[in-house]
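User: Assemble these into one structure.

Assistant: Restating your components, then the assembled model:
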Amino acid sequence: MSELEGKKGEIYELKAELNSDKRERKKEALKKVIASMTVGKDVSQLFPDVINCMQIDNLELKKLVYLYLMNYAKTQPEMAILAVNTFAKDCNDPNPLIRALAVRTMGCIRVDKITEHLCEPLRKCLKDEDPYVRKTAAVCVAKLFDINQQLVFDQGFLDMLKDLLSDSNPMVVANAVAALSEISEQSPQTKIFDLNGPTINKLLTALNECSEWGQVFILDAISNYSPKDDKDAQSICERVTPRLAHANSAVVLSSVKVLMKFLELLDQQSEFIQNLYRKLSPPLVTLLSAEPEIQYVALRNINLIVQKRSDILKNEMKVFFVKYNDPIYVKLEKLDIMIRLTNATNIAQVLAELKEYATEVDVDFVRKSVRAIGRCAIKVEQAAERCVSTLIDLIQTKVNYVVQEAIVVIKDIFRKYPNKYESIIATLCENLDSLDEPEARASMIWIVGEYAERIDNADELLEGFLDGFKDENTQVQLQLLTGIVKLFLKKPTETQELVTRVLTLVTQETDNPDLRDRGYIYWRLLSTDPKAAKEVVLAEKPLISEETDLLEPTLLDELICHIGSLASVYHKPPNTFVEGRFIMKKNLPLRSKSYGEQENNTGHTTMQTNQQPQQVVISSNVGSLIDDFDILGSMPMPSSNPMDTYEQSQNRTTSVVPNLLDDELSSILGLDSNLGGNQTPMMNTNTSLPINNRQTTSTGNELDDLFGDFNLQTGGSGISFSGNNVFVPPKEVWLSAAKGKGLEVSGTFARRSNQIVMEMDFTNKALQPMNDLALQINRNSFGLTPAQPLQVTSPLFPNQTVPTQLILNTTGPIMRMDPLTNLQVAIKNNIDIFYFNCIVPIHVYFAQDGEMDKMTFVQTWQEIPEGNEVKHQLQNLSNLSIDDLQNKLRLNNIHTITRTTIEQKEMLYQTIKLTNGIFILVELRITPGNRTISFSLKTKLERKFPAAQGAIRCVRYNIDGNYCLTSGSDRTIKLWKPDSSLAIKTYTGHSQEVLDVHSSFDNSRLCSGGVDKRVLYIDVMTGKIVKKYQAHAGIKDFYIFN
Amino acid sequence: MINSLFMINESGDTFMEKHWKAVLNKSICDYFYEAQKKCANPEDIPPIIRTPHHYLINIYRNHLYFVAVITQEIPPLFVIEFLHRMMDLFEDYFGTCTETSIKDNYVVVYELLDEMLDSGLPLATETNILKELIKPPNLLRKVTNLVTGDSTNYDNTFTNKKLSHIPWRPLGVTYRNNEAFFDIIEEVDAIIDQHGAIVMSEIQGYIDCCIKLTGMPDLTISFVNPRLLDDVSFHPCVRLKKWESEHVLSFVPPDGRFRLISYRVATQNPISMPIYVKHSIYFRESGSGRLDLTVGRKQQIDKAIENVTIECVMPKCVINCVLTPSHGKYTFDPVKKTLVWNVGKIESKPQTAAPLPTLRGNIVLATGQPLPESNPILTVNFKINQIVISGLRLQHVEIHGEDYKPFKGVKYITTVKNGRFQIRT
């Protein structure tokens, strides 16, 4: 209580002092106010009193008041208005500092009413005679944009800002660049910051004279420019190179970015490049003697640079040696780079260092050092022996975590150099008891299993592990199972009992499906065909290589374009973590072939271009109609001019959302008229689908089918609409009885009374009743989640079908799916858990409240660039009047905003709002008499959806979760990078649908099984089929690696 | 750009915050505290912390953390550099940058922060400009303020001045005595293995200037051996073109103290170290150990080596050290397990018979604990005047644009960057 009073008293006292007549007392009081504000105390009650002090003509006092205003204006907007007059006066002050101060402060007060008054002074200040004022005003435009974008567009401030790019004062130019970059980052679609030759020239001139911070902005802007040709690129490089000697590390790294990017465009053999390489290395090394925080960022970037162009730092190994007092984050990064730079000539030195590190105190660092020794062995063959002996030395130290780590890496060395170092197995076995980490235990078991024939007591060792089987981690359990099976195949006579024990254990006493499945496979293999089992289990393993820990080239190239940014620190593409923003994807410029003598060097970049058309083809499954559009749009561009490709890829990225809609729209129209006209049961098309094809046709295709039907049968007339004529796609089989162990699920999605409803039929095709049905939905693009528990009468008797409806909310967690409308569902019953994918038709996401104000519509329509527009024609609408059409669409939550007639064509403007708040704008053009409707769809969203693959049969992540494998009914397997939605590789070889796919322990091989009764064993890197097995009698649904 | 700044002390209190855009709640720092908790050492906090909506970029210096909050993609080095610049500036303004000095000068700090960034974009960061706008507090001014009853931090005359077109140098500087001092300082950074072989070595050099010259002087510095400088970072005032073409430093200097260049000399053949340490440290099962250090000066350096200290962080199981130094003093901190031996000066021309400084004695180990796996690392500090180890020498300092003849002074110093000279034992 007393404290509160004390506080009150303090405020009261300050109030009195602020209103004092004496200027000195006022000033002291104001300082106290600011001091309290600085520590986070609330002094907002003093607002009126502080405002009163503003009138006084004293710069210091004024500044203090301004400081206060900036902090508190937001909370007291009404009071803040009182300050406007003083601001206006100050903006005309003869002193440039006061003018600048006023305009600066006004920009910081984020109150609408103040902003209105800001426009006039700002316009004046942008043209002020004093550069200090202009420079301040430039930043103010960015501030204003942050508060009210429309105002900035309307008042033409952007153009004024662009004019400042040619200002005579370099500081002004720099600030204009900074402001423009910030604006264009906030709304990339505005494309206000286009760079061309003359602008770049101006920027390069300003670069020499502006402040260090300005240089960073200018360099970053330059890095977004695409030079006309290699001469252009070279001259920019020449002008940027001196910046490498700047004392500010941010300037250095931004220069490195520009150079690394433009290097791509130059002749790789030229002397210029060699010179540039020489110049790039010292500044990078210098960054490592700066503060540890700077070192960290530098090291993360050097890591990228070394992967891209290892020559730059090849002679600088020593600077990456670790000091014992480096912060841990620096140590770990240095270690990583040391390994990247290791080669046959410096390996001795590196190894000596690593051994030294392995005796340090910090556990994390020691572990990583031990791993590093293993990586060296794998990378440099000549040194493998030395590495192994170093590791053995380390194992002798008996330090627990060192031993465990060493065993894990020795396993990798065995993988790389089989039958070479087995003599050390005895030493390893001595340490068996001290291993308590799953990874080390699993590695040890792998070694024992793999070399069972050379270890006399292998069965005893494995049996020892088996005793505590239930307490082990899954990784160890799986490995133990495989290990024992291997042992059995090698020494069948003595170990029969052991193998039976382990198989019984995993198949009967474990809950883990992976483990159980694997157990069953082995069991069946062993009991039916031991020879085949031997072939499969003891197959020669692929060698591992050091490439595994490199970034994949496309990602690396993208990251090189972002050197110095957060993306480069996290080694992830920028769009994955800057929220709410869609950053233009940057690619390294391509060196066009006309001046490319060195095919080799541009090899992989050209490959990239080649891949792009491929992607288009892939996207075909979204809907065949789109295909034509996309392919037409991008086919005739074989030349790899960097600009062209860039635009091209952008076109593609933008076009897909409307595409999805496209189909949906046409289907709604189509189906409805069909129902009215001919009453043809649409189910025909669907029921004829083979049962095994769960979602094999994506919505798009299916609806096209419907359309096809409709086309044949039009001609009827007189359509009447009943009340709830909402489009509902027919049910399709999601989970076949074969997959669902007797449970068949078919279903569809509909929008009923403004809710998304999942309508399902459960059929029991098994011989026993089922109960305890439950359903779960995985995270998905629109956050669909069940609003209620699944209601199915239980038990479900054999051959009984129960329809049910499940209302869904869109409030769940969101994760982007491929395709966007994909939904992963898990259904549980008393038998097992089943997983399947289904496609949610997009129209169920159309929200009721999707109407847009007419003005907003027009504005938004204009705002959206042409690139986002998709046009499409419908041939088959005949007998709907426009009013009917409108009604029909309204029922499906497609709202007509306005309707006009232009050149004898009826134009309908409509909006759709998705449940996640995205608006889609539609323009329908109907020519009377002619049975054609043209659509244009636009949306603000830009996003890239790589295509679906027919139906995605299964999705699996590899061991570390970095990659994701999908197999599909289009007879291919695809390797994805889930965080960047890049399709990395497509594997073919199956003649029919691919049911399942797995990757091996070290990610080097994958194994797939398909309807064609074949099991393929594929090398991940090359895509070659290593082995084929054609032996299975039935369809193999799973196949798991050993 | 930079949205907000929090200053946090080692015990985890946010004692100052500043927001350039919308006000952010202090609770954002919880992510920082979480990272802090995970780290054993205060300096181990990762510089960039990712939170769901923001990025926290922090630096650790002078036992303080400056944490910047950003929301947009921005070069992290930009922020880190800026934060360090801020620390530099506070050191310059208040002598030291500590929690106390910042708390004592809240208003000045706040004004400075506001002047340095405008809506998160750097506005003025040059000390000279800022000092013109906001006067640093000093004793003299406090006294005069008391006498005259004026207590403004602002220079009232400045409102009439025009800002200089060179951002780093103010207009109208006058001195009665025109002086220019150049300190060439080189710091040795090296790792030496247990047999005395150099694992890695490099030299980090600086030229720090103190320029008190009237008007707008234009200086040119040439070197006897400019070839040594192939990896240099320059103060923004240095004309890069001129350096590229003629290998001279040509610049209009800022007023007062500043770092003109910093450079790195990494010779392919390792440099010869001026100092060596003979060591023998071992631990025995019986719960004791021996330590024997001898430090000496290499022959080729004929200057005295001053301020020699040897530091050693002992393994955890060491309880105490009982040692006898022949020169200087030693201390052992049983909590941090740090042994520090202040050797003092090693003379340039030792009497022939004079023994080298040694430190010998026993180490007491905790009983029942396993022996340490490795020997501790020694870090050595020293200072040599009148010589730089790379051999860099100034040739001329010329002044153009002004008529007076200034006093010019050059000082050479070789030293060790704190803790960067390490000897493995």
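Residues 14 and 26 of chain B are 8 Å apart (CA to CA).
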